[in-house]
Amino acid sequence: VSTGNGCGHTLLTPHSGTLSSKNYPGTYPNHTTCRWRLQAPSGTSLLLAFGDVDLEPSERCAHSSLLLSDPQAGTAYGPYCRNSVPSAPLLLTNSSSVTVLFNSTSHRSGRGLLLSYATSQHPGTHYTQEHIRASPDPPLALCFSVYCPAGCKDIHGDIWGNPSQGYRDTSVLCKAAVHAGVISDELGGQVTLSREKGITLYESAFANGLHSKRGSLSEKRLIFHKGISSCDDALEVAAFNASSWWHEVDMLGQVRAWAAERAALGTAGHSWAAEPSAETAWLELDLGTRRNVTGIITKGSSEQHDYYVTSYRVSSSRDGKNWKPYRGSASQEDKVFEGNTDSYGEVSNAFIPPIVARYVR
């Protein structure tokens, strides 16, 4: 829970999260306050990582301060500011509940703060400086596993590259992991990656709600490895069906059907399009048997018409009759996927957790 007028980007879950002051990494405003209450499951303890604490210096941190309190143990940490910084980048508490309080009065400088946290019961997580990251700098190991907290998608920093090429090693690591589709921003999670030889040019891509940048040569690149349950191969579609399709009539009176079977990604020429008057259009894929579906790639139809889908929902069925909407990792609402912004680029979205079904709409 967060309260106050000084709160910036905040995503808090029971197992991990990310929080920042208002305007971060720009100068935080005068006379603001924000209080975050972090609550982990009973029997666990919280680990906090200080990604950035840059508050204007003042005696006893009177102008701006960061204070953490542990109500269960009756202890406090801080106050912190630029001339009284945390002694270590990681703070391991003995409590499942921590209050984070940020205050500012009149000041001239300071980026504010960026913090992330996780609990002590993440399987396979070893708490070192390299294993919980909201900061831009990747560790130096050649092959490693790190824990990425929820909320990394919207922190400040750039990523260069895409899932097929890998990412420049100057990219924000956990933000790149969301772009690559190996974790969801809503939950975070453990990621495994390696550092390999760099390439001359990294192409940009739009994936999982994030734009990467086109970047030049780097000596190293980050390659994310998906778990054994994932599948990078394109699934064969036994049949396509749709709510409707457009029967285009050209100037010569010839009819061209934008039929459902033209929806396959590699189809040459025009694609599928719904009847122009349709308000609740859908496209259905029959995979022939129950399959594990880990993501979707969409593309528009640039042949003669600048057509593309900007957003969509997904539902699945095992029998073609009973349909279940996709709601992602930690939501009670149907997930709306960000689609294309032009008719020629491909956009990928990952299903975390995967869909197990025969039919997908």
From TrEMBL:
Keywords: Disulfide bond, Membrane, Phosphoprotein, Transmembrane, Transmembrane helix
Keyword Transmembrane helix in annotation: yes
SUPFAM superfamilies membership: Galactose-binding domain-like, LCCL domain, Spermadhesin, CUB domain
Domain F5/8 type C: 223-361
Domain LCCL residue range list: 131-222
Pfam families xref list: CUB, F5_F8_type_C, LCCL
Entry GO MF terms: signaling receptor activity
Subcellular location as annotated: Membrane
Keyword Membrane: yes
Gene3D superfamilies xrefs: Galactose-binding domain-like, LCCL-like domain, Spermadhesin, CUB domain
Superkingdom of source: Eukaryota
Cysteine pairings via disulfide bonds: C7-C34
Domain CUB intervals: 7-120
A GO CC annotation given for this chain: plasma membrane
Membrane topology type: Single-pass type I membrane protein
Name of the protein: DCBD1 protein
Organism: Piprites chloris (Wing-barred manakin)
Gene: Dcbld1_1
